[in-house]
Amino acid sequence: MSGLVPADIAALGAGAFFGALSRYQAGKIASDFIATNPKAYGKLTGWHTAGLNISGSFLLGAIYAMPTIDVDKINQIQSNKPWERFQGLSPRAKLMLGVGFCGSFTTFSTFSYDVVTWMNEGRLVRAFSYVATNNICSVAAAGFGMMVVKKILGAKA
């Protein structure tokens, strides 16, 4: 862990903690919803992981599209309006939100497990459509997140 100071490790850990909790809760909500009517919603089983990966990719794109700023510069901006003081994210905030939160919120391992499971069950169309959806939409979402931030921040981004 060279280059990481204790505050970076704490930020990374906090982001990962909340990302994992958020992923677990979203999965639980999806599973509970499917359980309300398995006949109608059973085909959605596993697809919530794609939703998490796509939304996490959007968020990651947005986070890294924001300018990286020096925390000392924020304190020099004279304004009572938070939106005027916002200039971007500190490197530590990007570490916490990008690597920590998004890294544990998205889940390539569960995605991979789902694909292999469906392939072993002979559900090849489902497996390959899941691979295509997850990859194409996640990359598009990351790009869209970057585009949205750049559009909102304009010259700052």
From TrEMBL:
It is a multi-pass membrane protein. It is found in: Cell membrane. Belongs to the fluoride channel Fluc/FEX (TC 1.A.43) family. It catalyses: fluoride(in) = fluoride(out). Signal peptide: none annotated. Pfam families: CRCB (PF02537). GO terms for cellular component: plasma membrane. The keyword Membrane applies. It comes from the Eukaryota. Its main location: membrane. The keyword Transmembrane applies. Fluoride channel required for the rapid expulsion of cytoplasmic fluoride. HAMAP family: FluC. This is Fluoride ion transporter CrcB. GO terms for molecular function: fluoride transmembrane transporter activity. It comes from Fragilariopsis cylindrus CCMP1102. Keywords: Cell membrane, Membrane, Transmembrane, Transmembrane helix. The chain crosses the membrane at residues 95-115, 127-149.
